[in-house]
Backbone:
């Protein structure tokens, strides 16, 4: 029977929870909405909590407050992807709820779990139900109810997990996308696995072995996103150093809601960071200065980037909110371990991609550094920041080449003294096209930014992978092992024959009037097969220049650029 949670016990619980999700991260990856083998929710959540494990192993926390604070701080720095950020927010709230506590009983811990849920919900302006938010909220509510009459923390946590699984089962019906795919929410499942690991530690059970993992059969690749019209043009982000650590920001929140949308305010004792979409960013900044000293501001006109934002606008908006709060919370501690290269030139370039061939392409085009990552492995903000700091340039342009990495990259602006400009490239071909339009002698960063951003809309991206499970999606009867073609993030077609699918994409390139086609073949494709694929495009588009290059990327047999 455990009636008090100490710092040492909490440390062991986190280590056990991390081991639990790591052992089943592939099963979590498999819970996505398309049958595409590139889901990374489990990987992101595992690596996020893994950052806490690394830090906790360096110390023996004397108090619960210390253990939870170390955990929350590490999660914020190591957060990867949407799921990792939500996990970090849940633990940040937990840390707030247990601040100053040497130990905690079941009731105090349950109340802190509810504080964690509150922090996560506050980060999202319009939180969607049927997600990890729903699972964590109902689990925490049940924990608080059980703790009202139960001192044994094992029983309280057990009740929370049971309620969480009931909520998880309901996510399929709550979320239309999950219902169509017939799966439960991946983030919610991952969160419950962590709680189960923490409970297992309380019970004295051994940690699971990752080698025993058996992936679930249900799998898909990425979320189906809806497109929204941009009402408020300026994506506005700024940091204010507080005059008063106890200042009430609710009036400020109400004001910003009246002049914009997509609002999130993240704060700690010293500062707060605002993200809002508005047509009058100057008014937002002026009002913010009533609460403290303005330290940093970043304003981008989203209408000039409409075509990039429109592809998956809804999901990117959620990422904006969560990632921006994480940036605020991580500010101040992350850059201390980085060595910042002094500027030796005006401009530098950093790209994110997976595959030695793709990295070589970017380097040939003038990129100074490459961060390994992409759809299947979102790099952390800290990893991108390290890459930025290592480039000896005054202004560093970052090419995320993935929609889920854009905001992680944008966090770097607040964490380094360098001028960081994020070009919102959502695919590798977009990033390559942006680099091909670089004028290394551009008079200023604004001119270069405009040219690179404008170039993004001129390229269409197609990708070919395989189906990891049987599925019926958007009129396509998909069989496990079939080849899948995606175009601009949407399902283009499926076929048992890779040759037939390539012919369909070649015909589409011809219909688009493509004059320049590049095929980057993956690590599982032989060069002779890739050359044969290139011949299909040459035949279909006789007037086009067709290039076949080794990308070396995982998961995707081909990444195809059509301009």
Residues:
């Amino acid at each position: 029977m455990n009636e008090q949670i100490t710092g040492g016990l909490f440390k062991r619980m986190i280590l056990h929870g991390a081991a639990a999700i790591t052992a089943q991260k592939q099963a979590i990856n498999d819970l996505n909405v398309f049958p595409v083998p590139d889901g990374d929710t489990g990987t992101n959540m595992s690596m996020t909590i893994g950052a806490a494990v690394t830090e906790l192993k360096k110390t023996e926390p004397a108090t619960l407050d210390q253990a939870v604070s170390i955990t929350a701080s590490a999660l914020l720095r190591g957060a990867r992807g949407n799921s990792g950020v939500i996990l970090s927010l849940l633990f940040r709230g937990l840390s707030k709820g247990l601040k100053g506590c040497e130990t905690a009983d079941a009731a105090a811990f349950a109340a802190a779990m509810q504080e964690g849920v509150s922090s996560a919900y506050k980060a999202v302006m319009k939180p969607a139900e049927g997600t990890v938010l729903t699972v964590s909220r109902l689990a925490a509510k049940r924990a608080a109810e059980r703790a009202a009459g139960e001192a044994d923390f094992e029983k309280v946590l057990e009740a929370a997990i049971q309620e969480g699984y009931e909520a998880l089962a309901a996510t399929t019906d709550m979320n239309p996308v999950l219902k169509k795919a017939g799966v439960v929410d991946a983030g919610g499942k991952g969160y419950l696995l962590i709680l189960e690991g923490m409970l297992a530690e309380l019970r004295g059970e051994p940690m699971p072995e990752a080698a025993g993992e058996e992936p679930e059969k249900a799998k898909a690749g990425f979320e189906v996103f809806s497109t929204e019209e941009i009402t408020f043009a300026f994506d506005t982000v700024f940091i204010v150093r507080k005059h008063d650590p106890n200042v009430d920001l609710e009036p400020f929140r109400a004001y910003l809601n009246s002049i914009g949308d997509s609002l999130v305010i993240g704060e700690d004792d010293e500062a707060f960071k605002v993200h809002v979409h508005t047509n009058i960013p100057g008014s937002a900044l002026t009002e913010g200065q009533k609460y403290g000293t303005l330290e940093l501001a970043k304003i981008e006109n989203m209408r000039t980037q409409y075509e990039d934002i429109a592809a998956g606008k809804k999901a990117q908006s959620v990422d904006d909110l969560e990632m921006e709060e994480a940036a605020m919370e991580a500010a101040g501690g992350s850059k201390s371990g980085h060595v910042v290269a002094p500027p030796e030139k005006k401009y530098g370039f950093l790209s994110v991609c997976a595959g030695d061939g793709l990295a070589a392409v970017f380097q040939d085009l003038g990129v100074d550094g490459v961060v390994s990552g992409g759809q299947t492995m979102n790099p952390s903000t800290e990893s991108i920041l390290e890459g930025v700091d290592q480039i000896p340039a005054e202004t560093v342009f970052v090419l995320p080449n993935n929609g889920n990495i854009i905001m992680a990259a944008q966090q770097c602006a607040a964490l380094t003294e360098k001028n960081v400009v994020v070009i919102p490239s959502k695919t590798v071909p977009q990033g390559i096209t942006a680099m091909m339009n670089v004028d290394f002698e551009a008079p200023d960063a604004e001119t270069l930014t405009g040219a690179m951003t404008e170039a993004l809309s001129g390229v269409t991206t197609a990708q070919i992978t395989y189906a990891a499970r049987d599925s019926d999606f958007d009129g396509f009867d998909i069989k496990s092992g079939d080849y899948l073609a995606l175009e601009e993030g949407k399902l283009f077609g499926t076929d048992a024959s890779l040759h037939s699918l390539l012919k369909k994409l070649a015909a589409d390139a011809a219909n688009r009037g493509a004059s320049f086609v590049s095929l980057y073949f993956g690590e599982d494709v032989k060069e002779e097969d890739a050359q044969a694929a290139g011949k299909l495009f040459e035949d279909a588009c006789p007037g086009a220049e067709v290039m076949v290059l080794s990308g070396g990327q995982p998961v995707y047999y081909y990444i195809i650029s059509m301009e």
